[in-house]
Amino acid sequence: MPANLTPQYLEAEQRYREAQTLQEKLSALKEMLATIPKHKGTEKLQADIKRRIARLKDELEKKKKQKRGFTLYVEREGAGQVTLVGGPNVGKSQLLTAVTHATPEVADYPFTTRVPQPGMMTYQDVQIQLVDLPPICAEYMESWVPGLIRNADAVLLLFDLSASDPLEQIENVREQLYQRKIKLIAQSPAESQSLSIAHKRTLLVGNKVDLPEAMENLKIVNELYSRTFPFLAISAKTGEGLEMLKEMVFRLLNIVRVYSKPPGHKAEFDRPFILKKGSNLLDFAKAVHKDFAEKLKFARVWGAEKFDGQRINRDYILMDGDVIELHI
């Protein structure tokens, strides 16, 4: 029986291959086990994943007892996890405070952030986890920072638009991460790219656009990077650009929201299912219930580009905002 592995499983498997720490590997394996289709054709693969999870747990326990090394891990929440990276004093903590309910320490001196600070940002009907990290610079970087970036879904690279060196800020962060086998990119990587390097979809965010010095730098950065990365200018202090930031972060995650409509009932708009772009009807059926994919007779869709209640095939590619009625 073919395995019919889902996009979510394949993405977790890719994250496992790229993982550099035991905790990252364990997190990816758990996600692989949670997203693998449960049928006879995957029984051996499920057993192998469980064995690897057990071995990693033993290794982690031994390391704890030996008190060797130091690492930090942020449990994933919401529709996706996005890390905030940048040099000292670019306003990462201020941005986290402005768009979430988190309360990190915010100060005008560098290296205020010493540990990861997560917060949940609301975009329409979904929650996205932002994680503020300590500064990245050539002089010093916390050893556990690359692991958190590697394990995240995407990156916001913040820089100070009012500073005299915004281009240097951007390139310093890119270079420091690349030295640690993390490449910041605009689009999802091609399959042929090296598995030893973690490719992270990135949004460039120029902060402090409210300051007079920022306007000239804004033109320069836009001219040099607009074809390389998506770019947005904001002010975490005044709130300028923050609503657009939320929308761009959602797009950066490459996900779609799909709503269930039980036959004979209204659509459940209060609880969207979050799936990767490119997922099909069978992926949605599995997300609703592990047995629905095999039992599915047919389905209907309501969406912007479809006739209301149009009947769809099992390989129908889901669109953001689709309402799906499954008939079992």
* CATH architect. name of the largest domain: 3-Layer(aba) Sandwich
Average pLDDT: 88
- What string, H for helix and E for strand, traces the elements in order? HHHEHEEHEHEEHEHEEHHEEE
Structural classification? alpha/beta
Give the number of DSSP strands: 12
Question: Which percent range describes the beta-strand content?
Answer: 15-25%
Please state the CA-atom Rg, rounded to the nearest Å. Answer: 21 Å
User: Can you tell me the number of structural domains?
Assistant: 3
The residue ranges in which pLDDT falls below 50 over 5 or more consecutive positions are none
**So what's the oligomer here?**
single chain
CATH topology heading of the largest domain: Rossmann fold
Q: Which class of the largest domain in CATH terms?
A: Alpha Beta
Helix content estimate? 25-40%
Structural account:
The mean pLDDT is 88. Strands 1, 2, 3, 4, 5, 6 and 7 form a seven-stranded mixed beta sheet that branches. A five-stranded mixed beta sheet has the order 9-8-12-10-11, sandwiched between helices. It is globular, with a radius of gyration of 21 Å. With 328 residues, the protein is α/β, with parallel strands linked by helices. The protein is built from ten helices and twelve strands. A hairpin with a 7-residue loop joins strand 10 and strand 11. The chain starts with 6 loop residues before the first helix and ends with a strand. The chain has helices spanning 7-18, 22-35, 43-66, 92-99, 145-151, 166-179, 214-225, 242-252, 281-288, 292-295, and strands at residues 81-86, 117-123, 126-132, 154-160, 182-185, 198-207, 231-233, 255-260, 273-276, 298-302, 310-312, 322-327. The chain has three domains: 7-66, no CATH class; 81-252, P-loop containing nucleotide triphosphate hydrolases (Rossmann fold, 3-Layer(aba) Sandwich); 255-327, Beta-grasp domain (Ubiquitin-like (UB roll), Roll).
